[in-house]
Specification:
three-stranded antiparallel β-sheet; binds adenosine-5-diphosphoribose; Rossmann fold; alpha/beta; binds zinc ion
Length: 253
C-alpha cells in the first residue's frame, strides 16, 4: 500500500501509472501570465458585454468589436509569456506522461512553453483572416493603427478564433471527443467548465472510465460530480508540485 501525503502526490502517482493522459485547459491557466479570465472577479465579462464576442456583432460592426474587445486582447496576448503551469504541462509531455493539450485559450502559450500537440478548441489569435479574399496575416504583422485592420484587398481581418455563435471546427471537436473517450486521466485546469461543448470533454472522459483530476482556484460544476478529485489552488503552483512529485517517483532508485 502506498501512503500519499498530498493531493499533488496522489495526482503524481496516478499519472505515473497511467497510459494516456490529456489536459483540458481554460483561461485560468493563463491568469498567472497576466491574461484575465472571462468570468468571476476581474474577469473580461465584468467590463465588456459578452455580446461583443458574438459573430453577429462582429459582422454588424467590426470596427466597434476591434475597438472594444479585440484590440485589448491583442495587447494582452502580445505581452504574455508562459507561466509555470504551461511549462509544467510541457514538462509532463517531455516525461512521456501527457500526450495532448486541449485548450480553450487562444493565446498560444502552451505551444510557446513547448507543448507540441495542442488542440486549439476555440481557435487562435496567432493568425487573422481576410473576410473577403481569405488571405492570412500573422498576429505580429497586423496593423491596428486604423480599425478595423484591413487586408490589401480592402477586406476586413478577423482573428482565427471561434466567436460566440460559431461552430467549433469539426476536426477539433471530433479529435477532442476521441481523445477524451480514450484517455485514462484527464487533467482539467483553470476552466469554469460551463461553456459547451468544451465542458463536455470531462464528462466524456468520466463516462469512459477515466480519472478526472481538476485543478482550479475554486469549485466548478465538475467539482464533486464529474471530477474524481479536485486540487484547489493556483495552476502554476499546483502543477509545479505535481511535476516535482512525479520526477521523484520516476527518478531511477
Ligand atoms: N489557477 C487556476 N484556476 C484559476 C486561476 C489560477 N491562477 N485563476 C482563475 N482560475 C479559474 C477560475 O476559478 C475559473 O473557474 O479559471 C476559471 C476561468 O473560467 P472562465 O473565465 O470562464 O474561462 P474558461 O472556462 O476558459 O471560459 C471558456 O468562455 O467566453 C469564453 O470563449 C471563451 O474560451 C472561453 C470560454
Ligand atoms: Zn483580402
Amino acid at each position: 500500500m502506498t501512503f500519499v501525503e498530498s493531493l499533488a502526490e496522489k495526482a503524481a502517482l496516478d499519472l505515473s501509472r497511467s497510459k494516456s493522459v490529456v489536459a483540458l485547459t481554460g483561461a485560468g491557466i493563463s491568469v498567472e501570465s497576466g491574461i484575465p479570465p472571462f468570468r468571476g472577479k476581474g474577469g473580461v465579462w465584468e467590463k465588456i458585454d459578452p455580446a461583443y464576442a458574438h459573430i453577429d456583432t462582429f459582422h454588424n460592426d467590426p470596427e466597434k468589436v476591434w475597438e472594444v474587445l479585440l484590440k485589448g486582447l491583442k495587447d494582452l496576448v502580445d505581452r504574455a509569456r508562459p507561466n509555470p503551469a504551461h511549462e509544467g504541462l510541457a514538462r509532463l509531455e517531455t516525461l512521456g506522461v501527457l500526450q495532448t493539450v486541449i485548450t480553450q485559450n487562444v493565446d498560444g502559450l502552451h505551444q510557446m512553453a513547448g507543448s507540441t500537440d495542442v488542440i486549439e478548441f476555440h481557435g487562435s489569435f496567432a493568425w487573422h483572416k481576410c473576410m473577403d479574399c481569405g488571405s492570412r496575416c500573422p498576429n505580429s504583422e497586423l496593423d491596428l493603427n486604423r480599425l478595423p485592420p484591413r487586408c490589401r484587398c480592402g477586406g476586413i481581418f478577423r482573428p482565427e478564433l471561434v466567436f460566440f455563435g460559431e461552430m467549433i471546427p469539426s476536426h477539433h471537436l471530433m479529435r477532442s471527443e476521441q481523445i477524451a473517450s480514450e484517455c485514462d486521466i484527464m487533467l482539467v485546469v483553470g476552466t469554469s467548465a460551463i461553456v459547451q461543448p468544451a465542458a463536455l470533454m470531462p464528462v466524456i472522459a468520466k463516462n469512459a472510465g477515466a480519472t478526472v483530476i481538476e485543478i482550479n482556484k475554486e469549485p466548478t460544476p465538475l467539482t464533486g460530480t464529474i471530477s474524481s478529485y479536485s486540487i484547489m489552488g493556483k495552476a502554476g503552483e499546483v502543477i509545479s508540485d505535481i511535476v516535482a512529485e512525479l520526477e521523484l517517483i520516476m527518478k531511477p532508485q
